[in-house]
Amino acid sequence: MTIPADIAAGFQLPRPVLDVRRFGSGHVNDTYAVTTGSGRFLLQRINTRAFAHPDQVMHNIVTVTAHLGATVTDPRRALHLIPTVDGGWWHVDDAGGWWRMYAFIEGSAELEAPVSPAEMRRVGAGLGAFLVQLDTLPADRLFTTIPAFHDEPRYVARLRAAVAADPCGRAAGVADEIAHALAYETASHDFDDPALMPLRVTHNDAKVANVLVDAATGEPLCVVDLDTVQPGLAVNDVGDAIRSGAASAAEDDPDLAHVRFVPELFEAFLTGYLGACGAVLAPGELAHLRHGARMMTLETSLRFLTDHIEGDVYYRIDRAGHNLDRARNQLALLDDIQAHWDWMGGVIARLTDAAR
Ligand code: GN1
Ligand code: MG
Hints:
- The protein is an alpha+beta fold.
- The protein is built from eleven helices and eleven strands.
- The strands form three sheets. Strands 1, 2, 3, 4, 5 and 6 form a six-stranded antiparallel β-sheet that branches. It has a three-stranded antiparallel β-sheet with strand order 7-9-10, with helices on one face.
- A hairpin with a 5-residue loop joins strand 5 (about 90) and strand 6 (about 100-105).
């Protein structure tokens, strides 16, 4: 059994370590807050089921944090890795677990739906600034640590394979949800053509909770949870922010009467985002912003539903049926995004004209 307090001792920390406790809301990695005599730190175990090459994940994080750190003077505006006692960036425990540590960003807050329009505009500004900062880091400097991570036709195929294998006998009970998700199969091909948009260094898990804001002023501080940073499409980051932030409820709210797409939050996000990075985006990216929202909501629908059918093997769950609740919630949001399709196009045309 690995004790996080022992692991913490493997990093270059001020002594003594006073307290180690679970922290945060991630579904994949394990995160702990480590309190020392002078300052707090964030200790994380990388989930090697999700990330088969943790050394490549760490290469990407070291590269990106160094690039971001070089452009900011306020330490709260970039993540800082803490080296191990022997000068590396990660510690492998006796059980083969991979651990890394960051300085804790004090006085920060993590947002979760429902957020306010002012908050959503700041999330947009924070994510747009992140894109601008990383525009000067060539995507081929990073490894693709999760191949085909946002390849929706592959997630459609995986859902079909899970239904065919049906390892837990759950498929018949979710026939309606399966049909609902598969009704969006055509949309899953929206980004099949690689010439549509440039590959950039993108976050790939850009939900609003991953844009830390100042707890006192609400200003965006820093984009966190960099494990999935790899070559990708900017519009998928836009889509993740919209599905997680322009929604009236958290992604696992089981009461579907709560789940709505919130038009003013979509507009607030894009106002902040395009204000920060509109000048840097390519025409193909500007043309596919709303497709990103549909694509990422479809993706979470497919992945949560597949995980439910496969027996909850990927996402951490806190209750029976949690992944099914998540899937139903995201499908309801997907329908409401689709219902606003033309409206979204009008808003994007207006905002991109204004940015020109
Ligand atoms: C996972 O672990 P967390 O919460 O950062 C997942 C994302 C999903 C998200 C849904 C590596 O992110 O892709 O969008 O859950 N990360 C991975 O909340 O699979
Ligand atoms: Mg993540």
